[in-house]
Amino acid sequence: MQTEGMVIHEHGGPEVLGRQVFELDEPGPHQVRVRIRAVALNHLDLWVRRGGPAFRLSYPHRLGSDLAGEVEALGPGARGVSLGDRVMVHPAISCGTCAACRAGSDNLCRTYQILGENTQGGYATHLNVPDDGLLLIGNALDFATAAALPLCTLTAWQMAYRKAQVRPGQTVLITAAGSGVSTMLIQLCKLAGARVLASTTNPAKVEPARQLGADEVIVSSEKDLTREAKRLTGRAGVDVAFDHVGGELFEKALAATRRGGRLVICGATAGFTPKIDLRHIFFKQVEILGSTMGRKGDLAEALPMMLDGRLRPVVDRTLPLWEARTAHEALEGRQVFGKIVLTVP
Ligand SMILES: [Zn+2]
Questions:
Q1: What's the 106 CA to ligand 1 centre distance in angstroms?
Q2: What confidence tens digit (pLDDT) does each residue in 66-105 have?
Q3: CA of 184 to the centre of ligand 1 (A)
Q4: One domain, residues 139 and 6
Q5: 146 alpha carbon to ligand 1 midpoint, in Å?
Q6: In terms of domains, do 160 and 279 share one?
Q7: Which residues sit with Cβ closer than 5 angstroms to ligand 1, an ion?
Q8: Does 332 lie in the same domain as 319?
Q9: What is the pLDDT of residue 55?
Q10: What is the pLDDT of residue 52?
């Protein structure tokens, strides 16, 4: 069928995004065609658009990992949903048969694909997705809210609950308080009973971070992050630090972590090669844990909390899909608290 989206034909700046009509195949076996109503931006969209050795795209390529919409057509054998169901879509696809997938760690699958990165994504009116990646949202969430949830919830869930194993009474540090992942980390760590120190370089993001549950917000452009985290923990340092900024902020977060503490990272938007003082790792016995995405089952486990509002995404703004360039410019400019969502007419 004919469908329409915002596509790229080459890597580059926001200007490479353009509106185009294209042909979409009928859904294959165990696939479902979703009529997309909203698609949320992630930092990944910027990485893929800009390009790099890791990305091998087939053009025209559609970005977009986080989407919500309605079930419009079922491929042969598709199960679990009915026509017209309102759904959010799991943002990744795995083989389902390898040892990692069978063990439930689908995000360790060697053929793991994130929608819009190594497959076609959601910047369009329609997308075919596997039937095992659909989560029913009923009438509990509007589409923009639903689209803002999957990737950042999945990522934050694995970081907080599987990697760091945050427990009541612990103090955690969450950098870049305004990012999608951090807004979920703040909520998940509060739900676990932890005290949350958040950091931001932008004073305008202090109050929104507090409203989300952060107990203390450090403006790291005004005060030294490590020193403030130490001061707020009676010199001990935090039990767990979460970072996805990298660069100098990683160094500060590592130095702010207590003896025997954990530092969990899921990205490095500001620098891949921080200077690490190895003494901070071995002498303080800090565990540095890498994290990417999360288990499919974890998002299903989080679903009831998303539906009843215990976990809520922060939607900074919504724009029509056709204004994806403007949305990319806003995310690149970091003038965003939470998610930007594109609504699909
Ligand atoms: Zn697999």
A1: 6
A2: 999 999 999 999 999 999 999 999 999 999 999 999 999 9
A3: 27
A4: yes
A5: 26
A6: yes
A7: 94-95, 98, 101, 109
A8: yes
A9: 85
A10: 86
